[in-house]
Each structure stands twice: as C-alpha cells, then as structure tokens.
Amino acid sequence: MNYRVTPQLLHKYMDGHCTDDEVLMIHQWYASFEGEDDPFETLSDDEQEVLRMLMLDKFKNSVGHGMVSETTPIRQKRFAVKMMYVLSGMAALFLIAFGLYFNRKAKAENPNTIVTTASEQMKLDNQTNSIYKQVLSDGSVVWLSPKSQLEYPKKFMGAYRQVKMTGEAFFEVSKDHAHPFIIYSGGVITRVWGTSFRIRAYNNIPTTEVSVVTGKVSVKLPEKDGSEVMLFPTQRVVYSRATGFLTRGTETLHSSMRIWQKTSVQFDDIPLDQVLTILNKKFGTRIYTNDKELGKLMFHADFTDQNLASILDMLEGSLNVGYNMDDIEVELYRKPQTN
Asked: Which fold has domain 115-250?
C-alpha cells in the first residue's frame, strides 16, 4: 500500500499538528519499514560518516522539539528514535539519487583542479605548497592550506550553508543570520554567522583546533548534548579524539594565527628584500628568497586591511613569483617565463 507521506507531513507530525487520520497514516507508513533492509548498508564507511555528520545534528534538533523528553514513555521514545533513523535513511536515499556524494576516484592532472559531479557539488584538493584562495557562492572566502581538502556546493541552497574539510583552512564567512554557516571537520561541528577563524583538522593528527580572529563561533560534538563551546576573538578550542573532550584555550601573540590578522602597510619603491623584512616583523614569519636578483626588485604597493595570505596572493600576481610555505616559513621564487 502506498502512503502519501511527505517531508512536510513528517515535520507537521513532529510539531504535533497532525489530524487523527494523518497520525494513523504515518503510523501505518512507519510500520511498513519493518523487515526492510537497512538503507545504510549500501553506503561505504566514508559515505556513512559524511551523511551522519551532515544529518544527525539537524534531525536530532528537529526530533528534540517536543518529541522526546525524560518523561516520555519508553515505547514513544523508541518510536521517536526510529523516526529519526527513518528520516535519516530517506535523506540518504535522496542524497544518493541526486548524486551529492563526491566521485572519490576522480583524479585531476592539475592538483588545484576542482572535481565536479552532476549534483553541482565541488571538491578542492590543494596539493601545492602554497595557500589556495576559494570564493564560495555566498561571497565567503576560504584560504585552503597545503595538503588540505574542501568539499562544498557550487551554490548554497536551503536553510544552512554547509561545507566539509580536512587539513587546515582559514574562513572569512559572509554574514547571513538567516543561513548559518556550518563546517564539518575532524569530528566537530563549527557553526558561524559571519566571522573569521581557522580550523586545523588533519587526519594524521589526533586533535582538531578551531581558533577565532574576529566575531564568534560555536563548536560542538555531533553526538554529545551540552558539548557546545562558544569562542570569541583570540580564543580557541581543541578537540582530542583520544579523550573525546573539547578544551578551551587562548592563542598566544606569537602563534601561527598572526598571519591571519589583518594589517595595513604601504611600500613606495623599495627593494623586495626590505618588503619581506617588514612583512616578517608584522606577521612573525620568515619570508625570504634565495634569488638575489628577485630581492633587488623595486616594489610599490598599498596593502590595506590585508592578511598575509592575501598579500602573498597579490605578490604572486604583480611580480610573477610563486612561494612554498611550511607553517610560518615562506620561500619566494621566480616563476618561469611562459611564451
């Protein structure tokens, strides 16, 4: 028997606004899932993890609006939990049908090439030794560090702006209070509305760090109620995968976060070597070049309200140089001439 159960009707049910006939229809529809195969069994471990992180927070919040409480009878609790499971399973089938999972086997010749699918989902894999700038459809900017990956939609749709990342990235998120920006990385969920912050979440490092430069963000664990931590400028939180805990801390003045703090500096026809000396003092870095002729180039520029990554990006464009970056050490080199 086919039941006309829509997502709108399910939300109506969870809000307690269904008629008796609608409640009966939903209960019959729910019972029809008994004995069916688990839809998650068709997904790989990686796909299940992506789906779990994307869906769990949203559905748990929806179910929590009056559906389950400490005083709810056990039978009703079990029904509510299974409803959340069924909803998640439906969402999984919907995602698969429209191709929202990324083609993990695709390899691009250019390490910065974005691999797209018919679903308009994008994946950026930065295998260079420099920071890669990516502007998202809402105007938010992501500075992706070397050996890092970012997964995001070509165009944000729906109530949330959601991305997933591994490695390290600095985010400058456009303000949109109606559509929170959510990042899934290294076992934590970071939620923002408009701010700038860095996330470090390498797969081979047992901790995930979120550090704030401007504004505020919240960081929480997907499956732990009450784990949410609010962060303000100069604050950070560290998640340990070994202990499963979030620990709040403060960034030091001499940390690698200084490269993301914006500054204003002008250069009026001075050698590049002197430019690098001034930048090193501003950002606490070691920027250098082994090309003596490059160091003698006269440089004129006005960098107003820019972080180091943005300045390096401008240097690349104006001087035809490249750079290799290792934490706060940066080597500039002259790019070969192209015909």
From this structure: Jelly Rolls (2.60.120)
